[in-house]
Design a protein that fits this description.
Low-confidence stretches: none
Number of strands: 34
Mean pLDDT: 93
Helix content: 40-55%
Oligomer: single chain
Length: 918
């Protein structure tokens, strides 16, 4: 093209860059938000609006934020930004879980020698560790674009919060829900503490699998099967199912008692041949018979239990009340001792019952430890019938990753079944909206099956369990005393408990009569951290005047059905009589592309920062929005690269529109009547608003992403933008058609930016700033704008329906154009003239009527130089493509019959000559 003619075109002009350069630009925009107080402006803007309270589940302050934590916080931020644009008042108070094993364990690993450190040194180091990661995580969350009340965030180690934890605990004491008992609990040997069910994870492991013969009478034995040989030291009984049939398996002049359903598997496991059986009777008839312990001088009576299954073992179950919840319950029914000769380090105690040579042997030592000693002894006694190795899933400590044991110790529990408490919780679940809907059934299942809540921990870094003990070890707990202590802790912090003696702690507090004259000592246990985070509905929602109880929404990973959602519910029902949340949404876990879970504590770094450094926050947010979080969410370089492609598409769409609005001032140039193609896109935009809004309302962000992506790629780039280029570039700046399209494009751009704003928080704000500058207005963040509304008055639905038919037919024309291009008859589409041979039947159809009615639009719609409609007697519709006749205009590249002289520019088509003359 002649250089002079090039400058006569209205080519796109914008400084909005094609490359995001997110690593540089996003932090600058974030700094601007912080300097200008964007979060505060949003709260002020909507201060009169209806409140929407999202209660934040606190992450542990034990490291950098994992990509899974980034997913969680981003999903919450998307919700709140959308609600804010809809006019809701959305105060967001983030929080941190500061106490507990994850932090103390890491601190102790760093200290190396626990014995060399006093309680205060350990607690101070934990507090410093927690504070360090609060600051780091806050920076990382903000870098993700998450807006919130960061200066007013809650921390479970703040004195006021600790006071509220104790007040919550006092409510449980007052309701007589707290009791102390020696019963088996999950015990982490390396961490030397009891764990709740919510603190365990299951891993595959190898265990010894043995069949053991307990002698009964001469040549008669009861056979048990176990994968924990070390617990045989604690065997006090053998349980049978009362309704199961039992048989004697005869082999080599001896007989062995086994359940009928397990005989075949037992014989096969032992490799015996030549066996036969005889009836022993139902389990109920065998109750009270005696067996002898295989290597200790004690009896092992036969007892009954309904929980026995026939999918493994022999149907005769080794029972040790100190090493399992079922065994414990059986022991209670039969008056058996809760015997557990294992110390906190997982070693045999010297209690006069354990063989002296075994004292100090570890249950975790797989070479010379407790299992090996027991198996060797059984072999020597002739009671080991078979030994193998079993690969199975087994509970492990979530911190040390070592196998857990059941160990009976004196612990404090919440009686979840007392005073119909469990039923009250099940009733409360029905008042909550669960998304996905199966969350309700999952929650109910966990509530029904959950054993009493073990709330005591043998650790230092936590809120003290506020119980005193007299000189005989008897415990003293009182709700009134605990509330008075809570006032002191709220002022001085929980260190006060560990620094002061009982006299100082109780000074000025009225004591119950039963406490008078007792020599009391403060307990050393701390509360389970689920009591910490579970108290947040009181310590945060009720304390903070900007918030409200109950929360409108809690949004966490699906593992919180057995974690935070439960602890919130237990504490809320006890203290408030109702659920602390109206709606609960859960998301899945981050997994590799092959579906394997990406752990926070294993494998290569999966921190959010490692992705943001490479891709920027908006790409990470776009990936999060693009996935259906209700299932597990796959993550890989390949997936992120696909998201990068989608991000570029969004960015280029915004850039194209900004570039073509460079000379458009809405107040001066906007039109009120639109051309058919502009009406069509305005209707498509309204339909987009409706679909995307519905997606956000349903919290289905992946649908919003899909709708927006399809709109930008198909509706805009492949159709509308493609069609418009001729009129935008070659018509006179103030041409009515051009201004029509610019007005429509202005609305489309503002709509797309606002619909994308909750997801692409940095990119849309950057684009919106360029738009406001082009309109000569002061910068105001996109996030302060209202959600777009539909405007049906801008278009005629009949015209839009006609354009739908034509645009659908456009793909058929393009196929013919592509065939002509492949055969070298044309180069680009403007080289073509299209002849449409229309039969009488088509003329009566919608498409035929539209082609005739909009014949003047077809050249622009198909992006060709000429379109001829030819009526033919044959039925149907045929598309013929030929090279256009005449000459090509050097300015518009359209073929015309002849060129005319434009003074100063040379020969051009008549349309361009008129533009140049103007």
């Amino acid at each position: 093209m002649d250089q002079d003619l090039k400058y006569t075109l209205n080519l796109p002009q914008t400084e909005f860059p094609m490359r995001a350069d997110a690593v540089v630009r996003e932090p600058k925009r974030l700094e601007r938000w912080q300097t200008e107080g964007l979060y505060q402006k949003l709260q002020e803007k909507n201060k009169a609006g209806e409140a929407f309270i999202l209660h934040d589940g606190p992450p542990f302050t034990s490291g950098e934020i994992h990509v899974g934590t980034a997913l969680n916080k981003t999903l919450k931020d998307i919700v709140l930004r959308y609600k804010t644009m809809r006019g809701y008042r959305t105060p967001y108070v983030p929080g941190w879980d500061c106490h507990g094993l994850p932090i103390e364990y890491r601190v102790m690993v760093a200290m190396k020698k626990e014995e060399a450190q006093g309680p205060q040194a350990i607690r101070s180091a934990c507090a410093a560790f927690s504070e360090k990661y609060i600051q780091l995580q806050r920076t990382q969350f903000e870098r993700l674009g998450v807006l919130g009340e960061w200066e007013g965030a809650y921390r479970t180690m703040d004195p006021q919060y600790e006071g509220d934890i104790l007040r919550t605990f006092a409510a449980f004491v007052e309701a007589d829900l707290i009791y102390r008992s020696k019963k088996p609990v999950y015990w982490s040997i390396p961490c030397r503490t009891a764990l709740a069910e919510t603190e365990i994870e299951y891993r595959d492991t190898s265990s010894p699998s043995i069949y053991v013969a307990f002698p009964m009478q001469q040549d008669a034995f009861v056979v048990v099967w176990t994968t924990t040989p070390w617990t045989l030291v604690s065997n006090l009984a053998i349980a049978l199912h009362p309704k199961a049939a039992y048989e004697w398996v005869h082999y080599q002049q001896k007989r062995y008692l086994v359940a009928h359903e397990r005989v075949e598997a037992f014989v096969a496991a032992c490799g015996w041949e030549g066996t036969h059986t005889s009836l022993a009777g139902l389990g109920a008839l065998l109750e009270g018979d005696k067996a002898l312990h295989p290597f200790l001088d004690r009896e092992s009576p036969l007892v009954l239990a309904d929980y026995i299954t026939m999918d493994a073992g022999t149907g005769c179950v080794h029972t040790a009340p100190g090493h399992g919840p079922d065994d414990y319950q059986t022991g209670l029914r039969y008056g058996l001792e809760v015997y557990c000769p294992i110390d906190e380090q997982g070693c045999y105690l010297d209690d006069g019952k354990v063989p002296q040579a075994w004292v100090g042997a570890s249950v975790l030592d797989t070479k010379t430890g407790a299992n090996t000693l027991v198996i060797n002894t059984l072999r020597e006694k002739g009671c080991l019938l078979q030994q193998a190795t079993l690969q199975h899933s087994y509970p492990h400590c979530w911190r040390s990753k070592t196998p857990l044991i059941f160990r009976a110790t004196d612990q404090w529990f919440i009686g979840l079944g007392r005073y119909a408490l469990r039923q009250k919780l099940l009733d409360a679940v029905k008042t909550v909206a669960w998304l996905p809907e199966w969350g309700a059934a999952r929650m109910e299942g966990f509530l029904k099956s959950r054993p009493d809540w073990c709330i005591s921990r043998q650790r230092l870094w936590g809120v003290p369990l506020p119980v005193f003990y007299d000189e005989h070890g008897a415990p003293y707990a009182d709700a009134g005393v605990i509330r008075a202590l809570a006032e002191k802790i709220a002022q001085k912090g929980s260190n006060f408990w560990f620094e002061a003696n009982a006299q100082t702690l109780l000074e000025g507090i009225p004591l119950p009569p039963s406490w008078q004259g007792k020599l009391l000592t403060p307990g050393t246990d701390t509360l389970d951290v689920w009591m910490d985070s579970g108290s947040s509905h009181h310590a945060v929602l009720k304390r903070n005047k900007a918030l409200a109880w109950p929360a409108d929404l809690c949004f966490e990973g699906s593992d919180q059905h057995r974690g935070w959602f439960q602890s919130l519910l237990w504490t809320s029902v006890v203290t408030q009589g109702a659920a602390p949340y109206k709606k609960v949404i859960t998301h899945g876990f981050i997994v590799a592309e092959d579906g394997k879970k990406i752990s926070k504590s294993e494998g290569p770094s999966q921190t959010a920062a490692s992705y943001i450094t490479r891709y920027g926050a908006d790409v990470l947010r776009l990936w999060i929005a693009s996935e259906d979080y209700r299932d597990d969410i796959p993550l890989s370089e390949n997936i992120l690269n696909q998201v990068v492609g989608a991000y570029r598409s969004f960015r280029n769409t915004l850039r194209f529109q900004l570039g073509n609005l460079h000379d458009f001032d809405y107040e001066r140039h906007a039109v009120k009547t639109f051309s058919p193609i502009d009406q069509w896109v305005l209707k498509k935009t309204d339909e987009l608003i409706e679909r995307v809004t519905e997606s956000y309302e349903l919290y289905q962000f992946h649908r919003a992403y899909q709708e927006l992506n399809a709109f930008c790629v198909n509706t805009l780039s492949a159709r509308y933008h493609d069609i418009l280029k001729d009129r935008l570039y070659t018509l006179a700046p103030n041409d009515t058609l051009r201004r029509s399209s610019q007005t429509a494009m202005y609305r489309v751009l503002r709509t797309c930016m606002r619909l994308l704003a909750p997801i692409l928080v940095f990119t849309t704000d950057e684009a919106f700033e360029f738009l406001t500058q082009s309109q000569k207005k002061a910068y105001e963040s996109i996030h302060l704008q209202a959600w777009p509304q539909t405007k049906p008055s801008l278009y005629d639905t009949d015209v839009c329906a006609q354009l739908d038919s034509l645009i659908a037919f456009r793909s058929q024309v393009h196929e013919a154009l592509e065939a002509a291009r492949q055969s070298k008859r044309i180069g680009q589409s403007l080289d073509a003239q299209v002849t449409l041979a229309i039969g009488p039947d088509v003329l009566q159809e919608t498409l035929g009527k539209c082609l005739v009615r909009h014949v003047d639009l077809l050249e622009e719609l198909f992006i060709v130089s000429k379109v001829h409609l030819v009526l033919v007697p044959e039925l149907g519709l045929a598309v013929q493509v030929d090279h256009a006749s005449g000459v090509r205009c050097p300015r518009s590249w359209r073929w015309v019959e002849a060129l005319v002289e434009a003074p100063g520019f040379g020969a051009v088509c008549k349309r361009c000559e008129a533009v140049l003359r103007s």
